[in-house]
Design goal:
The structure holds 2 protein chains of 2 kinds.
Chain A lengths: L7 H6 L6 H11 L1 H23 L7 H12 L2 H34 L1 H16 L6 H8 L5 H24 L3 H9 L4 H38 L4 H11 L3 H29 L11
Chain B lengths: L1 E10 L8 E11 L4 E5 L6 H9 L6 E6 L2 E2 L7 E4 L11 H5 L1 H5 L4 H14 L15 H14 L4 E5 L7 H18 L2 E6 L2 H7 L2 E6 L4 E7 L10 H6 L1 H30 L6 H7 L4
Parallel strand pairs in B: 3-8, 3-9, 6-7, 7-8
Antiparallel strand pairs in B: 1-2, 1-4, 4-5, 9-10
Helix pairs in contact in B: 4-5, 7-9
Classes of the chains: A mainly alpha, B alpha/beta.
């Protein structure tokens, strides 16, 4: 502390009061956003420097990418590409939830269901999903929506099942015993104990599954069916429009972040008591 | 009246472990309005016994009847208080207290009014809207007690309800439980491993021994009621000291005996198991 004769007022006023400039400084220093922006600035500068000195055809500058981003947002081609891609995401992800959550819940409580789900779940968890793409295209054709939807499902569903199952399993058995002792039947135990107890973990599965579903959605478009976002990426790549290509990738990341944030908000709304959730992948 | 006759239970062998005689020929009669404490070392089957009376666990032989009717599962005349509190972490204090009523289909207005009554009784007014995670252990168990009382059972089954609390909180809750019991006179079966708690609360103390779990002695506690207002005097009395000391002598005997037989078994392979030794020697 620099308590010299030059600053007698500080020791007089004591703790509590701070001049507004100091408060502002503390807010800036204390905020995580300061550091996040700082990291972005450092990485962006390094990128800018590299792109300007190397002058490669397929590496745009940071500033060029940011500029292209502004152009893409108003480009109708981009909007229609996102619309097409998200069709498979919406249909596939909803199916993954409708099948995955009940399957995970049932597997946790009923040994017989668990015994037939488990081997297939293991297969799903270890299979490199991208390897399934040619198979699905051959089975359903390039034009159809089906292979894209299926890929989103196989990407998303394992984490949904695993987390729903873990959610029910980690419900305190004392709560089930308590409900039983007050006369609850199986239906009431599900409604009053297991579902609310598993909800935080289910929501974690939804959030992780969403991220994986988005990955699946883009991968199949890149590797096999050149439509939607993936198709546009290939298009930009073919025309050496590097800045546009980079900006499009940034847009996909932004969409994914926004969607995951929405799930996070829902999570906090429906399960406010659970600040700690099981995180499993 | 609760009657246990010839109650026995053996947990089957699991892997390398031998089968365990959890309970062997337990006979016990608990009168209406009696406060019975069950005392024993850990692993003596006292919680198993309580869970059977609650209708949460099957047994192999014998019978449990409540007012002459055999127990086949949980029933509205019995309510349980759990050592781990077993509160719903997502439900408010009021909803937790009303939970038993809700399961029985009592309408919302009625059950909430009843819940508030009991929240008052256990001294939690003002905390109706809190979640269990925002309460101390003592307050959480008050919620557990209120939930059990809310369904107005004839019989309260309490499984080491204060075992997870610190000493000071436990003493406060013992006094409060005495007050509530002395006002309501429900039949209480209270499991504990504390001699002082068993004697302070109970009309009789059932002393259990482990493996096989049996009731070795029923000790009447003739300390005057009401006790809630005279806890200090009771704990300072000669009778209190004498009963707790005698209980401790027997408990220590059991523990030493168990250690002794365990050592014997390890020392000489093929020697009689603890169970065999226990049944061939008279209880201390």
């Amino acid at each position: 502390m620099s308590s010299g004769p030059s600053s007698p007022s500080r020791s007089m006023t004591g703790g509590g009061f701070r001049p507004p400039s100091a408060a502002l400084r503390a807010a800036i220093v204390g905020s995580p956003w300061t550091y996040r922006l700082l990291v972005l600035l450092v990485l962006g500068s390094a990128w800018e420097l590299y792109a300007r000195t190397a002058k490669l055809l397929l590496v745009p500058t940071f500033s060029g990418t940011v500029g292209a981003l502004g152009g893409l947002i108003v480009d109708p081609r981009v909007w229609s590409a996102f619309l097409i891609s998200n069709q498979s995401l919406v249909v596939g992800f909803v199916i993954a939830l409708l099948v995955g959550i009940p399957l995970g819940l049932a597997a946790a409580r009923f040994r017989r269901i668990e015994s037939f789900v488990d081997p297939y779940l293991s297969i799903l968890l270890v299979t490199p999903m991208a390897a399934l793409i040619p198979i699905m295209i051959m089975a359903f054709g390039v034009q159809s929506l089906t292979p894209r939807v299926l890929l989103v499902i196989v990407f998303a569903i394992p984490v949904v099942i695993v987390n729903s199952r873990a959610g029910v399993r980690q419900v305190d058995p004392a709560l089930i015993e308590m409900a039983t002792s007050y006369g609850a039947g199986e239906r009431q135990i599900w409604r009053r104990i297991l579902l609310p107890g598993a909800l935080p973990a289910i929501m974690t599965g939804v959030r992780l599954g969403l991220g994986r579903g988005i990955t699946g959605m883009v991968i199949i478009e890149l590797l096999m069916v050149a439509v939607g976002i993936g198709g546009l990426i290939l298009n930009f790549q073919g025309k050496f429009q590097a800045a546009m290509l980079y900006a499009l990738v940034v847009l996909v990341v932004l969409e994914a972040l926004a969607l995951v944030q929405v799930v996070r908000l829902v999570e906090r709304k429906v399960a406010p008591w659970a600040h700690q959730t099981v995180l499993r992948e | 009246m609760i009657e246990l006759t010839g109650l026995s239970k053996t947990f089957p062998a699991k892997g390398k472990d031998e089968p365990v005689d959890a309970l062997k020929d337990v006979n016990l009669t608990i009168k209406d309005g009696e406060f019975l404490t069950i005392l024993g070392p850990s692993g003596c089957g006292k919680t198993t016994l309580l869970r059977m009376i609650a209708g949460l666990m099957d047994w192999d032989d014998g019978e449990i009847t409540v007012d002459g009717k055999p127990v086949r599962g949980p029933g509205p005349e019995r309510a349980m208080v759990f050592q781990s509190f077993a509160l719903l972490p997502w439900a408010t204090v009021r909803d937790n207290v009303a939970f038993g009523l809700e399961l029985r289909g009592v309408g919302k207005a009625t059950r909430q009014a009843r819940a508030d009554e009991l929240i008052d009784l256990v001294g939690l007014r003002g905390f109706e809207g809190r979640l269990p995670g925002q309460l101390s252990g003592g307050m959480q168990q008050r919620v557990g007690l209120a939930r059990a009382l809310a369904v107005d059972p004839k019989i309260l089954l309490m499984d080491e309800p204060f075992g997870a609390l610190d000493e000071q909180t436990r003493r406060l809750l013992q006094e409060e439980l005495l007050q509530i019991w002395e006002a309501t006179r429900k039949t209480v079966i209270f499991i504990t491993h504390s001699m002082e708690e068993a004697v302070l609360l109970g009309d009789r103390v059932a002393l259990m021994s482990p493996r096989p779990g049996r009731i070795v002695e029923l000790v009447p506690v003739q300390l005057a009621r009401p006790r809630a207002s005279a806890v200090d005097a009771i704990e300072g009395s000669a009778e209190f000291a004498q009963i707790t000391a005698s209980l401790w002598r027997q408990l220590r005997e059991m523990q030493l005996f168990r250690r002794h037989t365990a050592q014997g078994r390890h020392g000489t392979p093929g020697a009689a198991s603890a169970e065999d030794a226990a049944s061939s020697e008279p209880a201390a």
